[in-house]
Automatic annotation (TrEMBL), chain A:
Keywords: ATP-binding, Nucleotide-binding, Transport. It comes from Actibacterium naphthalenivorans. Gene3D superfamilies: P-loop containing nucleotide triphosphate hydrolases. Pfam families: ABC_tran (PF00005), BCA_ABC_TP_C (PF12399). Residues 10-249 form the ABC transporter domain. One of its GO terms (cellular component) is plasma membrane. GO terms for molecular function: ATP binding; ATP hydrolysis activity. InterPro entries: AAA+_ATPase, ABC_AA/LPS_Transport, ABC_transporter-like_ATP-bd, ABC_transptr_urea_ATP-bd_UrtD, BCA_ABC_TP_C, P-loop_NTPase. CDD domains: ABC_Mj1267_LivG_branched. PANTHER family: CONSERVED COMPONENT OF ABC TRANSPORTER FOR NATURAL AMINO ACIDS-RELATED, HIGH-AFFINITY BRANCHED-CHAIN AMINO ACID TRANSPORT ATP-BINDING PROTEIN. This is Urea transport system ATP-binding protein.
TrEMBL record, chain B:
Keywords: Cell membrane, Membrane, Transmembrane, Transmembrane helix. It is a multi-pass membrane protein. One of its GO terms (molecular function) is branched-chain amino acid transmembrane transporter activity. The chain crosses the membrane at residues 14-32, 44-66, 122-145, 152-171, 201-220, 241-268, 288-312, 324-349. This is Urea transport system permease protein. GO terms for cellular component: plasma membrane. NCBIfam families: urea_trans_UrtC. The keyword Membrane applies.
Length: 249, 377
């Protein structure tokens, strides 16, 4: 693998995190190209979510490096990582239930992110147009005034994806975006993700293999904090090691 | 809340503000004699603290059990100025060191401590009333929120700070007046604050300042910052990973709460004529939280009513059953937590407002049925 290849958006090298001696992620390296949709799969406890936590700064790494467009993310605060262009969606839908869909999206709008800016923030036409545009993408254009608490589970997932989209991140990280969705919602989400990834890189954690096949450019299989296999969906599916620890049962 | 109309005041907000203004500026002054009016003025100084708690606790989810510290610091800054004016060499000629506050003389101090000196100036003192507590709140905020201390831990630490503050004030008797506090305050730039007319004027000054703080609170709540506070209360991580430095916002709102409490404290000193550690410690700080909870921790107007009602009840009941009052207060708090989590404002929004709307509709007046003081708006 070429180190410092300028073509990579994200370079994760030797990433390790140890919780009281237990290495949840152990010397992990992988590289994400522009416009690539990388899917991370693996059995429970393989360290998938921890990898995303490390990249977005939620968990502090013990060793290694995460390089995003030439910036070392491990040294940055969570909000600085967001401003650098990394967006993260959590496993359980995290939306602000007491606020409307519009207000949820507005908070993520990339303006007025310090105290003074938030006090003087004005809801101008540009903001409204952008929110309307995003709402249409995430199928919520008719629910802008609805309180987020009243949305269905699937709609909350879409709303959170929308909150990331409005930031226009170069790297989008999604943790099980279709978990708990109906088949119809799942199809819609796959279509949505395919549209979104056209102009950015995406890392997705997912269990649903049909869904993975729909969206993945490449697949990384994690096992015990390490890469077990990496490559196209087809290659990974036929890898005997993967079949043994993950797909076989 | 609709997208198109995001004004500072909705129609219901305007009505609510107008009703409160009418009560404070017209009804109470007309209905009460000067003694009682002064008492209500004192109650209203606690409304400043409750108002700050609505922003910190209700909106932002930051429960401070140490607001008495800021109330006290504001009150002490004011009291220091008044005490120095009352301690002119002529007034204190019988002391062994004339010209210093009486309690310093009793404690064998022979000169004014250097940090008392600037409080000869009224301008400095008024600035200090706000700046000293806010600076203190800022330091606490940075130390706690940057390290992501929150929730119960933050509440306990603020309570400890309130205890420490009381011990410090009582222990440093020669500099602070000790357990008696700073008493025997007389004039403000020669204007006697003990007269009836002064008490009436101070009541109105207090009311105007309260409305200024209410407007500031309303502005904050209606700005994007207000919605970020609510978002933080619900999903702190989501806000952080949407690109906000969460600690900055908590520090800001905690400082605003401290500033409000401090203004209340200064007005308390002016209207009551003294300041003592019994308004700083754990018990008064928790009482302040109860005012806010009873009024409704999500409603800025509710906070004012809560402070008025609980204090009025306290005066009334403790006049007749002094030993029972604390039990009454405890029962009130339990009742609020168990039965009316949104306090008076919640009761109003759920039960009273719909009825008023129905009555008005029947009478042919067309008013929107949406309740006032909607939680979490």
């Amino acid at each position: 693998m070429t180190i410092n290849n300028p073509n990579f958006v994200l370079m994760v090298e030797g990433l390790t995190v140890s919780f009281d001696g237990f290495k949840a992620v152990n010397d992990l390296s992988f590289y994400v190209e522009p416009n690539e949709c990388r899917v991370i799969i693996g059995p429970n406890g393989a360290g998938k979510t921890t990898v995303l936590d490390l990249i977005c700064g939620r968990t502090k790494a013990t060793a290694g490096s995460v390089n995003f467009k030439g910036q070392e993310l491990l040294k940055m605060r969570e909000d600085q990582i967001v401003h650098a262009g990394v967006g993260r969606k959590f496993q359980t839908p995290s939306v602000y239930e007491d606020l409307s869909v519009f207000e949820n999206l507005e908070i993520s709008y990339p303006k007025g992110h310090n105290v003074f800016g938030a006090l003087t923030f004005r809801r101008d036409q540009q903001v409204k147009d952008r929110i309307a545009e995003i709402a249409e993408t995430i199928f919520l254009q008719d629910l802008l005034e609805e309180k987020a608490a009243y949305l269905s589970h699937g709609q909350k997932q879409w709303l959170e994806i929308g909150m990331l989209l409005i930031q226009d991140p170069e790297l989008l990280m999604l943790d099980e975006p279709v978990a708990g969705m109906s088949v119809a919602e799942r199809k819609k989400t796959a279509a949505l993700l395919n549209r979104i990834i056209a102009d950015r890189s995406v890392i997705v954690i997912e269990h649903d293999m049909g869904f993975v096949a729909d969206i993945a450019t490449r697949v990384t299989v994690l096992h015990q904090g390490k890469t077990l296999s990496e490559g196209s969906m087809e290659r990974v599916q036929n890898d005997p090691k993967v079949i043994e620890v993950y797909l076989g049962h | 809340m609709s997208i198109a109309s995001h004004r500072l005041f909705s129609r219901n907000d305007l009505i609510g503000f107008a009703v409160l203004a009418a009560i404070i500026f017209i009804v109470l002054p007309l209905a009460l004699d000067t003694f009682r009016l002064n008492l209500f003025g004192k109650y209203l100084t606690y409304a400043f603290v409750a108002l700050g708690l609505v922003l910190c606790w209700g909106a932002g989810g930051i429960l401070s059990l140490g607001q008495g510290v800021f109330f006290g610091l504001g009150g002490y800054c004011m009291a220091m100025f008044l005490k120095l004016e009352a301690s002119s060499p002529e007034n204190t000629a019988i002391q062994s060191t004339p010209g210093i506050p009486d309690f310093m003389d009793w404690n064998q101090l022979s000169a004014l401590p250097w940090w008392w000196e600037p409080f000869h100036s009224l301008t400095f003192s008024i600035v200090a009333v706000v700046v000293v507590p806010v600076f203190f709140a800022f330091i606490i905020g940075v130390a706690m929120f940057r390290r992501r201390v929150g929730g119960v831990y933050f509440a306990i630490i603020t309570q400890a700070i309130a205890a420490i503050m009381t011990i410090l004030i009582i222990g440093q008797q020669g500099y602070t007046g000790g357990v008696n506090g700073i008493t025997d305050l007389r004039t403000l730039k020669g204007w006697d604050i003990r007269t009836d007319s002064a008490k009436e004027i101070l009541y109105f000054v207090n009311g105007i300042l309260l409305f200024a703080c209410l407007l500031a609170a309303q502005y904050i709540r209606k700005s994007k910052l207000g919605r970020i506070l609510i978002a933080m209360r619900d999903q702190e991580d989501r806000v952080r990973f949407s690109g906000y430095d969460v600690a900055d916002f908590k520090i800001f709102v905690f400082c605003v709460g401290a500033a409000f409490a401090a203004i209340g404290g200064a007005m308390f000193t002016l209207q009551v004529g003294f300041m003592s550690p019994s308004f700083v410690g754990i018990v008064p700080s928790i009482e302040m939280v109860i005012y806010c909870a009873v009024g409704g921790r999500l409603s800025i107007l509710g906070a004012v009513y809560g402070a008025l009602l609980v204090n009025w009840a306290k005066t009334t009941f403790s006049e007749s059953f002094p030993e029972l009052w604390l039990f009454g207060l405890g029962a009130l708090f339990i009742a609020v937590v168990m039965a009316f989590p949104n306090g008076l404002a919640g009761v109003y929004a759920e039960h009273v407002a719909p009825r008023i709307a129905r009555l008005l509709r029947r009478g042919g007046v067309d008013l929107p049925a949406t309740p006032d003081k909607t939680p979490a708006e």
